[in-house]
Structure formats: structure tokens, C-alpha cells
Amino acid sequence: MKQVGCATLDGFDARVVDVEVAFVRALPSFSIVGLAQASIQESRERIKSALSAIDFKFPPQKVTVNLSPSDLRKEGSHFDLPIALLIALQKSDISFEEFMIFGELGLDGRLKDSSTLFAIILSLAKEKKVKKLLIPKESLPKISTIPGLELYAADTLQEAIDICTDFANAPIILSGTSLTWPHISIDGADYYYTGEFPLDFADIKGQETAKRAALIAACGMHNILFEGSPGCGKSMSAKRLPYILPPMSLDEILEKAKLDALEGKEPDFKPMRPARAPHHSSTKASIFGGGVILRSYLYFSEVHLTVSEVILTSQNHPGASCENPIL
Question: What pTM, to 2 d.p., does this model score?
């Protein structure tokens, strides 16, 4: 029996999953067990087609794939590549002990990126559970921003097999690519910022007290409450607050990119703390969290998506059950 490391999302964080493959003399079949969801069960057809594309003859045996631990829900097309490699290299003596492998397969054997891959690998890297990775080249621009990883990248299943059969001579890419945004260094750590100010406090005439309060709140990352008559500049000041917040560290930028990826957006790695303004009809659950599990991770609330960021609400917001409506 061969096995290789992979992972799946469990809430907001990743859990390591061992992919095991066993070949038994019996009527030919191909099954995946271990609480695998539909996207993984469908991988059987993608794997068969991809292996056929490289002229690999599927073994006439009972092939059983187990995803351990078996009591953890697993989902994601990134399990395609580790399963396919274990089947293709069944007769070799290659050890995958130090490696984790991720990648979705196309029917022609091409490797593709998946929406949750960046979030999974970032979570594993923060917990120091991963060091060496084999991933699709399509994922390289995002994954290479995570520091401390040794990356092997392939475009096709055949390239991935060639890398696995000769790890010693395969090209290694060291991650931790520095961002191109301007930055300042404090005590050896870099903090990135952007010089773009589409909304500027210079547009506000007067209201010096409100500007001073916004400056203090931004410097200390404090909550702030604006009170006043309609049209006096409360919302105008609040909308400009994100542009004077402190520069972001690499960890904060990566965490923001992780939340973007989990929300289904393409991470842009821009050192800009987003501001979210929930609709006045938003419920408490949509702002503070709760609800059911969707696709192995939770529905996102506005608070989940505003870590180290800004959330703007109205004074009469029915869902804002907090002392300071504008945070």
C-alpha cells in the first residue's frame, strides 16, 4: 500500500489527509472511501481519462482509495493528482513521506488550479505542517507568495510523474516571493502600503474634530462612532477611513487573500484593508456569523470577512447589536 499527504478544509482551517491506495486481486473496480464528497467521487472518471491520455493501462484489479481520517468530511478536486500518481506509480518504490501533493486533473491529463488550494496551503504553512509541495504550475503565482515552502510544479500528469521519479534532479522553486508594493521596514519586518487614494479626507471641508478622531481610530485600530445630523459628513468620513489605516504585514496580506479565495474571489495581494458596508436589512446572523455548513466550510459573516479591516454600519442598523455601530 502506498500513501501520500494531501489536505481538506475544515471550517476556516485545513486538516491533513492521508491518501492511501491498495490493489487487491478481485473483479476490477475503482472505489474511493473515507467520507469523500461528490467532487472527489467524480474524480474517478477524470483520473481514468487522464491516465489513459498518457497511455497508462489501468490495472485489472480492485483499486481502493482511502482518505484518512475517515470521520472527516473531504471535498475538493485537488485530490485528483495524488490519487492518480499513487495508481500510476504503484510498482515503483518511491516514497512520498516528506511531500504533499495537490492538483485537479483535466480529461487530457493537464493540471489545473482549484479555488480552495491557496487557502488550504496557507493554513498548513502557518501551522508548519507542510514543507515540500507538488502543485500545478497554474497555482504557482499565488502559492509562491507563501514563505518557507519548497515547490515542485507541473503542467501535466506526465510531468508530475517525471518529477516524482527523479526528485533529486527536478527544479525546485523556493517560495516567499517579495511583493512589488512599496513598503517600510520596522524592526526587520516589512509593512506594505499603496499610494492610491480614490477617497481623500481633503475632500471634507471642516469637521476637524471628526478627522482627528478618525486618525486616532486608524492608528490604534479602535472602534469609532460618528453622530450628527444627516449630511454633516459621517458616512463621508467613514468611507475614507480605510485609506489611512496602517500598512499591512505579509501575514495580514496573505490572510486577506485567503478570505478572498474562500469567498470565491481571485486574490489580488493588494495591501489595502477592505471596507464592507452591510445593507441596513442585514440580519444579526449575516453580520456576526452562524448558520449551516456549506461545502465543508461555514457561511461567511461580515465579521469573518473583516479581520484587521473595516465594517461600516448605520446608527439605525437593525442587525448592529453592538455599542459602536461603525467599526
Answer: 0.82
